[in-house]
Amino acid sequence: MSKRTALYRFWDAGNVLLYIGISENPDARFAKHEALKPWWPHVVRKAIEWYDNRELAEAAETEAIRTERSLYNVAGSPWAPKPRELGRCEMQLTEARANLGDVTDRVRLCREAIFIVGRTRERQPRVALVPADLADAAEAAGGLDRAAEILRSAVQS
Known about the structure:
The protein has 157 residues and is of the alpha+beta class. It has six helices and six strands, in the order E-E-H-E-H-E-H-H-E-E-H-H. The strands form two sheets. Strands 2-1-3 form a three-stranded antiparallel sheet, covered by helices on one side. It has a three-stranded mixed sheet with strand order 4-5-6. Helix 5 crosses helix 6. The longest helix has 15 residues, at 54-68. It is elongated.
């Protein structure tokens, strides 16, 4: 049987619900939020409800996220932005890691840039693999910043 688990909520000074979460050790979890979350400085009020086990807390958390419209919860929120569709020359980082040989073959044979998309909220390309001759030509045309512009336009066309 799982341990007693807390369901917690954070609000800002305007009484806007910022975040809903669960933890068996809320103080340790709050310290992680403080270290990692950009919204943490806005927290002025906290509330904690204790449940006899994690399963009950998870059920309460799911319902709270679904109905209370917290500003920063993404998982389970019907209001969370949906991931955008990947373009023809993009692939998820996990897929790229699992199939690195396929990625390099595709770059070498197809002469196209492949953008590896991480799990960032903005879904910005994190890595681009391009054939060496295309990268060299782009860099020769104006340095790394200009090379990035040329590569982006080559991929989009």
